[in-house]
Amino acid sequence: MTALAPAQSDQTPQVPLRVLICDEMNPGELQHEGFEIDYQGNMDRAETLRRLPDYDALITRSRTKVDRELIDAAGPRLRVIGRGGVGVDNIDLEYASLRGLLVLNAPESNNVSAAELAVMHLMAAARGLTRSDRKTRAGEWDRKFLGLELKDKTLGIVGLGRIGSIVADRAQGLRMKVVAFDPYVPQNKFERLGVERAETLDDLLARVDALTVHTPLTEETQGMIGAAQLAALRSGAIVVNAARGGIVEEGALVEALSSGHLFAAGVDVFVDEPPTSDHIFLGAPNLGITAHLGANTVEAQERVGAEIVSRVLAALQGDVSKGAVNAPALDAKTLEALGGYLQLGEKLGRILTQLLPGAHDVEVTFRGEFPADPAPVVTATLVGYLSGSTEDTPNMINARALAKERGLNLTVRQEQDSPDYQTEVIVTVRRGMPGEKQRTRTVGGTVFGRSPRLTRLRDYRVELEPEGHILIASNEDKPGAVAKLSNLLGTWGINIAGMALGRAAKGGQALFTLTLDDGLSAEQLQAIRDLDVIDSAFLVRV
């Protein structure tokens, strides 16, 4: 990785590192030894282009477009770009990475504000604030409406990350019982927060009086609260979405409100923002709406400015552990030596997060002689394991810090000999606290040329390219299992692109993997598990 050079040593003349802040914010203290911070809020673009070559770092909000023109104008001196807040849509991340520029943000600064907004929506929905406000303004004095007390009610939280954890704390202060679903969070965090764990989303939905979502918007979470999930809630439940538009399906939410199944709801986010004048939310009954105001408090704006300045100054001194959004390219020598292994590590991590999410231990074992120090492969494995499970996007810079925050214990082992391959990377994850049943999953792989290969699943030897949709099935080592499964896939029109077989001993337990051209629905996967020749079946996407 292209490391950021630290500040000059005491043996050389101290030349201040210069930072330009070109957008309005509250940057806090601007006097820092060894730095010269120039705050010019709302600087026009022409002036920014003219002055930027004289600075080591640039800090913006959303107003300034950090595109190719601006990056090229900066010249070789610029090393760090800081974005005050969460989003980085105004920055050309791909080009910044190509140029070796580190991009930072400060997403944690608005955690309290975002959590409090969700609680506000919850309380407003329970007491009919939007309904009463509308009627009173229209001249109708309606005192017949009966709201709900939140005390002794059960709140369900989807996503127990930083914001979800704060919501849980505030809800407990309201004397609510809190249950959460987050398969990526270790059990010890639930225990620390005093939150009950729901093993599945369906389990959560059936038990709660109110539901709030606090999870990143990913392929997995897009539309995860749809018509079926809303119908599974108790009649008269409350739903809040102050996370990302699209996690709760908009049409399904309006229908559940209109039918009376839901008591009320609150939203701070839309799929498309700002909404059009005919958006279905605007005419929905008992729905409170805010204009994506999660981060909009005086305190959050003060924190975000001071925090992004602090992170940029730390990065200029060589500490890139906090707030990194992108990963500047590895140096050519390391990339040439470990490129295939970095891909392998990330793929192994992605497989394991689907086989056993929420692990508390990650163990990476290197077998054989690697062409370079394999330490970056550990980081790549964490990138894969954490993908889609944190509020931040993991990368080669921040993955270890995110893993520590998530509570993952990391162990790295080096074995000189590799009995089956010249080199092999084996990753094991474990879940289960002391006194509980421990669950363990192990995968391994190697690199042929520059192409990653999967070589191990649990105790079974396999060999296949880790790409696309992979069906992993175990069965008793008898003829006919693969044929029965293949026939079933054929009836669904799903083509098998590749197959690998493995077994521990003749006549014992066997495992086989099928690489499929298409994914499987939950119903199709269950049908496979119901086959009399199949003991277990899992689908992973790599």
UniProtKB/TrEMBL annotation:
Its EC number is 1.1.1.95. CDD domains: ACT_3PGDH-xct, PGDH_4. It catalyses: (R)-2-hydroxyglutarate + NAD(+) = 2-oxoglutarate + NADH + H(+); (2R)-3-phosphoglycerate + NAD(+) = 3-phosphooxypyruvate + NADH + H(+). The keyword Transferase does not apply. Keywords: Amino-acid biosynthesis, NAD, Oxidoreductase, Serine biosynthesis. Coiled coil: none annotated. PROSITE patterns: ACT, D_2_HYDROXYACID_DH_1, D_2_HYDROXYACID_DH_3. Residues 470-542 form the ACT domain. Pathway: Amino-acid biosynthesis; L-serine biosynthesis; L-serine from 3-phospho-D-glycerate: step 1/3. Pfam families: 2-Hacid_dh, 2-Hacid_dh_C, PGDH_inter. One of its GO terms (molecular function) is phosphoglycerate dehydrogenase activity. The keyword Metal-binding does not apply. Belongs to the D-isomer specific 2-hydroxyacid dehydrogenase family. Catalyzes the reversible oxidation of 3-phospho-D-glycerate to 3-phosphonooxypyruvate, the first step of the phosphorylated L-serine biosynthesis pathway. Also catalyzes the reversible oxidation of 2-hydroxyglutarate to 2-oxoglutarate. This is D-3-phosphoglycerate dehydrogenase.
